[in-house]
Backbone:
């Protein structure tokens, strides 16, 4: 079994015109079950090294708070915070973890929605990104020795819990090339402060979002640019069946609007 931790960055729901967060990123960090205990122990030790006890009861690792020094992290200089960020990504690399992601430029996505469905139809970009990402992850699991099963573990995002579970169920029942064969039928949604690997996924997704913004020619702060070389060794790419997924999204939308 492989645990597939999901996290998003730049999430503004169905608001696709947000000038501050123009790109949505969904990331997937894959952790083989045999590495899970070792990974958690190493992540915990790195926290104790950089942020020794006592810590607040609600302590949690967040990329945004680390880089922008919010809350508890204001007590630590930027050098220590960057060292910790790099150490956690280094732990992921040392454990040979892989990270997949899908970035969606919101204005481009909004234009596709309007041209495909007309005005007034909103499909959360999380749903589209998940449909694409799930295909790449399923193919990756197929190619591993023994073709292990995978289970999605995500932060509790009430906006998309139902949509993600529905997508998993529908894609597992597909007869064509989009069928998910190595993903168990139900995803799990947990509070992020209860899971160190999920918090690690948060750091990965934050760094990738900055990388995607830089690729798109958007202004990126120097501190955020420092993160990009640290995340690159973890990134894996797959062949996304983009045309098939777009057709599938259209078919699902038609089924939900039978009068059209």
Residues:
């Amino acid at each position: 079994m492989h645990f597939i931790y999901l996290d998003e960055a730049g999430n503004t729901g169905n608001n696709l015109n947000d000038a501050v967060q123009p790109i949505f990123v969904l990331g997937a960090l894959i952790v083989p079950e045999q590495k899970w205990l070792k990974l958690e122990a190493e992540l915990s030790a790195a926290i104790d090294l950089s942020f020794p006890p006592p810590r607040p009861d609600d302590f949690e690792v967040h990329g945004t708070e680390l880089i922008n020094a919010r809350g508890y992290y204001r007590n630590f200089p930027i050098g220590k915070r960057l060292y910790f960020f790099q150490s956690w990504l280094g732990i992921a690399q040392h454990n040979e973890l892989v990270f997949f992601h899908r970035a969606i430029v919101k204005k481009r996505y909004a234009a596709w929605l309007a041209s495909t469905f007309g005005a007034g139809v909103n499909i959360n970009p999380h749903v589209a990104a998940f449909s694409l990402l799930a295909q790449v992850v399923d193919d990756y699991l197929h190619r591993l020795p023994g073709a292990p099963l995978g289970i999605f573990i995500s932060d509790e995002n009430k906006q998309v819990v139902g949509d993600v579970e529905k997508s998993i169920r529908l894609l597992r029942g597909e007869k064509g090339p989009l069928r998910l064969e190595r993903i168990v039928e139900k995803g799990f949604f947990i509070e992020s402060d209860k899971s160190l690997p999920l918090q690690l996924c948060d750091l990965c997704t934050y760094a990738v979002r900055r990388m995607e913004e830089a690729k798109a020619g958007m202004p990126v702060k120097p501190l955020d640019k420092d993160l990009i070389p640290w995340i690159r060794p973890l990134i894996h790419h797959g062949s996304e069946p983009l045309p098939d997924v777009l057709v599938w999204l259209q078919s699902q939308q038609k089924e939900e609007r039978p009068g059209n």
In short: The first helix runs from residue 33 to 50. DSSP finds nine helices and five strands in the chain. The chain has one domain: 2-256.
